[in-house]
Amino acid sequence: MQLTIHGPNLNKQNKGTFHVHTAGCRDNDREVKNNGSVDPYTAEFASRDEVASFIYADHMAEDPSASVADYVADFHFAPCCDALPFSTSAKAGKPRSQPKAAYKVKELKFDAKLVEQVAKRRAGGESLATIAKALKVTTGKAAMAELVATTPRVAVADPAKLARAVAKDRKAGASWGLLAARYGITEGTCRAAYTAASGQPWTSLDYRRKKAEPKPATKAVRPRRQAAKRTAKAKAAA
Ligand SMILES: [Zn+2]
User: How many CB atoms lie within 10 A of CB 165?
Assistant: First the structure.
């Protein structure tokens, strides 16, 4: 449906910050002449959700916890829009004009002392499990500390560039942890960056499945574990 959106800063806002009419509605003139509408925006929309997503894309990206409905409430859809469905997603599974995914860069704040301690002990030949136990942290945290210690830091200031770099590396098989260590950002930021650059959910690539493929360059963590399982099974069967 071709719609014309008026607002914000309309004279009369008791019905909504934005007023929406069909593009052909005569009330569009009234909104401009009598209601202070400046530069109304006309475009094709399939649902009320789409209108709200279009106007509030930036807000939504900043606050993912808010639902589209919260934003739709800010719009007065005039009776001429009655035929406009509320949601595109219910019908088509996905909004047609998804707002361009923006994301916030959160710096990785990792305990420098822990990184140093883990690196030192690793150099001394201790296993990650032993180190984790000694330092009273989870093995995962010790592993991350090692990643931070051993991964050369790459600084990318431009968020769009950073997102592309993350997506590229991820597609090449890098783990979220490695990406976090490499770019000095949280794993959550890495995932959001991947989605922003690729337009795909961050779960779209299964890194683990990829790692399980026989490749001489990668460490055979999984196959070894599987082999151990097989041995245990064989023992149990014997
Ligand atoms: Zn109207």
Answer: 18
Q: Other CB atoms closer than 10 Å to residue 78's CB: what's the count?
A: 19
The alpha carbon of 209 and the centre of ligand 1 are apart by a number of angstroms equal to: 53
Residues at Cβ < 5 Å from ligand 1 ion: 21, 25, 27, 78, 80
pLDDT digits (tens, 9 = 90+) for 89-103: 554 444 444 445 578
Q: Do the strands 2-6 and 18-22 form a parallel or antiparallel pair, or are they unpaired?
A: antiparallel
Domain spans, the chain? 2-92, 112-225
Per-residue model confidence (pLDDT) at position 168: 93
Q: What pLDDT score does 154 carry?
A: 94
Phi then psi dihedrals of residue 58, to 5 deg = -65, -45
| CA 48–ligand 1 middle distance (angstroms) | 15
